[in-house]
Design goal:
Blueprint lengths: L1 H15 L15 E9 L4 E2 L8 H16 L6 E13 L14 E10 L4 E2 L5 E6 L4 H6 L1 H4 L2 H7 L1
Length: about 160
């Protein structure tokens, strides 16, 4: 009985690692259309046990991620994104099951409404993003399972 319970618990944990939104199309954003997509990383701070990543790498990864997610909308209202990378921590290899650090990214985002000629948010909105988890990285850690580039894409 205990073995069956442990097996079912293990399956439940593994199924929780799956991305529930893989096949869903992005939500409709009405008349939204992405204008400028500006990413800067000049003031970013690296976490204490992090792998190295350059400013250029972060700018490239985040610019392409925003373009992929928001670039396909063809509405008539133009919005511009200004994003700054404040800090990051790319998980190094840990000790499987015992110590599995996760990657993290801190960004500030400002959205500019082109028609109104002003910011939608007076103060930048800060986001703290944790790395997505795959079946392999849940137990072994993403530092062992993923390259630096894969970790950055996961954020």
């Amino acid at each position: 009985m205990i073995r069956l319970l442990a097996l079912l618990t293990g399956f439940a944990l593994l199924s929780a690692c799956a991305d529930p939104n893989q096949d869903k199309p992005p939500a409709d954003l009405g008349e939204f259309r992405l204008g400028h997509n500006i990413v800067v990383a000049s003031k970013m701070q690296k976490g204490p046990i992090s792998r190295e990543a350059s400013q250029e790498e972060w700018v490239e990864v985040l610019t392409s991620a925003v373009d992929r997610r928001f670039g396909g909308f063809e509405g008539s209202q133009l919005y511009h994104f200004g994003m700054s990378v404040e800090g990051y921590m790319l998980a190094p290899p840990g000790v499987p099951v015992i110590y599995n650090p996760r990657s993290m990214l801190i960004i500030n985002l400002t959205v500019w409404d082109d028609a109104a000629g002003k910011k939608l948010n007076d103060k930048p909105q800060q986001f703290q993003v944790l790395e997505d988890t795959t079946q392999g990285s849940a137990f072994l850690g993403s530092g062992r399972e993923r390259t630096k580039e894969e970790q950055m894409e996961g954020l």
